[in-house]
Specification:
Length: about 270
Amino acid sequence: EPTVRTELMEQIPPIAIFLQESRPNFPTAFFEYLMPIVVRYLTDVNNQVRKAGQEALLILLEQDLVAQSDIENKVCPILLDLSAPDSDDEYKVEAVNIICKMASMLSRTTVEHMLLPRFCELCSDGKLFQVRKICAANFGDICNAVGQEATERLLIPKFFELCSDSVWGMRKACAECFMAVSYTTSPEVRRSKLSPLFISLISDTCRWVRQAAFQSLGPFISTFANPSSAGLYIREDGTLSIRPSPQDVNSSSSQPSSNVTLVSSSANAI
């Protein structure tokens, strides 16, 4: 019964945490018994079971419970098969979604060598606009996961494609994550490539795209600032923040210090 399999998936993370804490008594139980179930359920015929399996996998990755070898040899190959060009549409949409979500939890080498080539292919998927939209919405996270060199060499050309996509929702998603993409690139790329691209979004024919671009204008401009003098930086949760100056810290030393959040890396949906 699908409900039984779904319930089983929901119990996997707490069981895995228990096994990790009791590892001397169960050294290989998770890898031998539980991990194969999670991987198998990623391709289950029932979508609720698959969703439960995906959520369980993300929790396991977040808790750092999955071995690097299992990620590269078991998880990534399944996701690459599900996101292949000839894969079923529903499976492909789910696969690209989980690829984007798990990118920030994996090592840069794993993402760049195993998942980045497929992500670039999916950005140009001409069959499903839902796939391209997921790529556009998560573009900043992928850039952050692979770093500046891979972003400028492989991802920026794809970002240009998405920013000129015929579907306005794609262009809007690009405008919303523009700051995160810009933050990953060099000052020269920001000036020579991203600035003209941003101007095209501000001048877009769709008012929803223009509105999203104007909401991202300030955050995008902030990426041109020198962090050492402006005090601007990106926190781990993706928000743009400002560090208080030493004078401010000294003047308020009796109060708990706090960072002032300016704006999220992805603007609120309209």
